[in-house]
Write a structure and sequence with these properties.
Residues 46-302 form the Rhodopsin domain. Pfam families: Fung_rhodopsin. One of its GO terms (cellular component) is membrane. This protein has 16 helices and 2 strands. By secondary structure, it is an all-alpha fold. It has one domain (22-301): Up-down Bundle (Rhopdopsin 7-helix transmembrane proteins). A two-stranded antiparallel ribbon has the order 1-2. Helix 2 (60-74) runs antiparallel to helix 5 and helix 10 (249-260) packs antiparallel against helix 13 (276-294). The two termini are 38 Å apart.
Amino acid sequence: MALNVTASGPFPSPSSPESLPHDNRQGLVVGVTSALLALVVIFMGIRVYIRGFMLKAWAWDDSSYILSGVFIMTLSIPVYFSKDQPTSPVIRDIKAKTSSHLDVEKGSLGLHWWDAAPERLAIDSRFLITTVLTYQIAFASIKATFLLQHRRAFALPSVQLFCDVMLAATAVIMASMLLSGVFVTKKLLDPEYAASSDQSAFLIWGYVNAAVHLATDIIIFILPLPLVGSLKLATMQKAGLIASFAVGIFTGAISVVRMVNLPLGINSTDPFFDAVPLVLFSIAEPTSAIICACIPIMRPLLGCSDRSRNSSHGSRRWLSKLSDKSAGNQTPLSFPEMAYMTPAGSPRGDYAGCLSNSQARELHMIEFGTRTRTPSSPATPLRRYDSDLGP
């Protein structure tokens, strides 16, 4: 997100001041941000309930998920501190120390520049810099959540290695964007900086930043699709799994829309008013990602059968054999219970050794998310390639 702001420089002068509009978008900012914040809180609660209470299988990806939600909320919560309401001295002190680009009371977001008080213009640059840096950390943490989640779910050495490489690349990209963002935005703190100055460097950086995030998003979101597609499942089961992972395409679509809005938010002659869509898309983008990261693990809430309900309460006991081995009574495969099995001695984790959830249960295998054990049957010596991230 970027605003064409200044602490002291002149803005382009209107040709007819008497005809200037005096509407504002601050209500829109507060309303949309409230809805996005509510979604973040709801899905954080769902994640904690499923992974922490139902499955009792809290792992690193779950911690990263919560951290991502906290960073997203830092972009949203200050909206509520910007309303004119009678408050205690303690609350007023907290408001005075809160810094965010969505602080529509202390900042100028949503106002026409001719309606913004000079004291508001003086602090908008700090809001912008805080936003740029927090956005990078929030998006990097949600990407780490996806990668850690894939690493835990698809227990194949090649997939885990790829996820490790992508985690390192995500960390490098985040550090690079933070450093370059500080370098590009530091001129906003210069008292001599003027809004009429050249914004091409900022715009180029915004495009590069958006393109890098979009490229990594595509890689992360399509990673599980060929793996799920290779499983021998019923058509509807496979379609359901693919759909649960493919919802990440919505985050990519928001990224594209946000990229299209970059020039309007950076080069506008009325930046505080025109940048509102860019600001909202900047919050909607990681919010969409945090929702998409939670959808694949929500199967235990559906409880399509008594067996799936009983197996979704975090039990660490060995699963009994299925009494009815017919295809119609097999429990559908779900993300939290997905287990990739490979024949012993197969270091590559070939797909030929993958077992469905129901097959793993027939071999007395425990559900996904618990510690690795060896099947009791000596005739089928299988080894599970699982990460050490799980409980």
